[in-house]
Prior knowledge:
binds glycine, two-stranded antiparallel ribbon, 9 strands, mainly alpha, 9% strand, Glycosyltransferase
Amino acid sequence: MKITYLIIGFAIIAITGCSSSRNTAVQKDQLGLIDKALSNAVSQYKILMTTVPEGRMPHSYQNNKIRAVRPTGWTAGFYPGTLLNLYKATGDKKLFEEALREIVVMDSVQFFTDHHDLGFMMYCSYGTLNSISPKEAYKKILVNSAESLIKRYSPVVKSIRSWGKIDDDNEFTVIVDNMMNLEMLMWASKATGNPKYRNIAVAHANTTLQNHFRADNSSYHVVAYNPKTGAVMQKRTAQGAQDESAWARGQAWGLYGFTMMYRETGDKRYFEQAKKIAAFILSHPNLPKDKIPYWDFNAPDIPNATRDASSGAKIASALLELSGFTNGSLSKQYYNEASEMLKSLASPHYTAAIGSNGGFILMHSVSNLRRGVEVDVPLTYADYYFIEALMRLKKKIRS
Ligand code: GLY
């Protein structure tokens, strides 16, 4: 019964949009429903926190067992990040205490240079903590993390190397996901007054803009460069269905990344690209009715292909931010589409019943279908962006 109300409530949000008369009883109901989704999430994370192995971070749940990663795994920062956001959203101190207890395992990662995911790992964790409770010690960890990340930058390629050894002479790989690591660099320049982090982030975004997108504004997953000349050697996929397909998570990272870079720089090219990616996603004939993408827009077995709730959550969160940068019908469209996505994610099709799903909030995400790894499972990053999107929606309704 409660779930039915939740669905109806989100549907009302989608139809009315944020510009309708404020402080009405309807809006109160809508806010109540978002709060209900957040409170479900808190209950789930209180279960999850009882199962976290020492020195590791939750990542997924399969065969009735938690899957946890070392702090150097790319997903390690999402669990503390979600705890902190849920604390921010609800004021429940138990979550803040758990985040403080767990986040210290991330400390060693500030000097990690083996891959590019420092932004995900450190900005979602320590960046969120520092935004709630700023401290010199957290700032230092974040600046060290930015310093480690830029060690992977090449002035020849004008990009940050995603995978492989820093000095690999054969191939310099950049994946579209890497756009997500730039927010920490933008923050680092503001925090230190040193423009070098920002300059690298901007150079990386420009190179991605130039080489990662196809004529239809979908993106390649991987672009391989010649490290000695910076020339593009190959465009391919690692996690998508085919080299030429549109891997859903990659499209989500691009949309989110270029929206964020527009927020941080005001560069209209990033804004235009974000809108083009949004148009690709929202007008795609393979976007299902409930707006939660298949794991790849060109998955061979559509309509039976597995959905990826994590992509839906990221796209919803990015669209809500993008709706704030646009006006009129476009702004309303982004807002409504994001609300529809959240309506689906908050339904029992995707949101787990309290006490199930190992304490994770969402079901039905895909990590790496190509390799048969974590298909149709809960994932911490689905939860992270779902909570962020709910908070963004709530803020918009209130503004
Ligand atoms: N590297 C982030 C992802 O697999 O989506």
